[in-house]
Amino acid sequence: MPKKKAPETQLPPEVIDHWPEVFENIDIQVIPLEYLHSIRVHFEDGKIWDVDIAKSKEKSSEDQLEDTLEQLFEEYDDYITNVDFRLDTDRLKKDIQARTKYFLKKRK
C-alpha cells in the first residue's frame, strides 16, 4: 500500500521524529516566530534564501519581522516554489512540557 502524503498542515517527518507522541497529531495553521529557527525560501530559478529568525529579531522587533516576511511572501508569491519553516523543536518541546506540567498542577 502506498504511503499517504502528509497534509500541508502536518509537520514534516524529521520534526515528528523528534517527539512523535506529540508532534504526530499536531495540525499547523500558524507558527509563532518564537518557535522558528529559520525560513528557507525556494524560487523557480533555483535560488534559495535562508532567513535566520534569531539574527533577524536582533535587528528588528517581532512585529516588524512579521511585516517584512509578509511583504516578502506577497511580493515574490509568483516566483516562490516552496517555503520550509525550520522549527526550534527543542524550545517547542520544552515549552509544551512546561505548560502541560503547569496545567496538570492547576487541576489538582
Helix fraction? 40-55%
Give the neighbour order of strands across the main sheet: 2-1-3
Task: Give the H and E element order.
Answer: HHEEHHEH
Mean pLDDT: 81
Give the C-alpha Rg: 16 Å
- How far the N terminus sits from the C terminus, by CA atoms, comes to 46 Å
Based on secondary structure, the structural category is: alpha+beta
Helix and strand arrangement:
Elements: H1 13-16, H2 20-23, E1 36-43, E2 48-52, H3 53-59, H4 62-75, E3 80-87, H5 89-106
Summarize the structure.
The chain is an alpha+beta fold and 108 residues long. Helices cover 44% and strands 19% of the residues.
Give a structural overview:
With 108 residues, the protein is an alpha+beta fold. The longest helix is centred in the last third of the chain and has 18 residues, at 89-106. Strand 1 and strand 2 form a beta hairpin. The protein has a domain at 33-101. It contains 5 helices and 3 strands. It has a 3-stranded antiparallel sheet. It starts with 12 loop residues before the first helix and ends with a helix. Mean pLDDT is 81; it is low at 1-7.
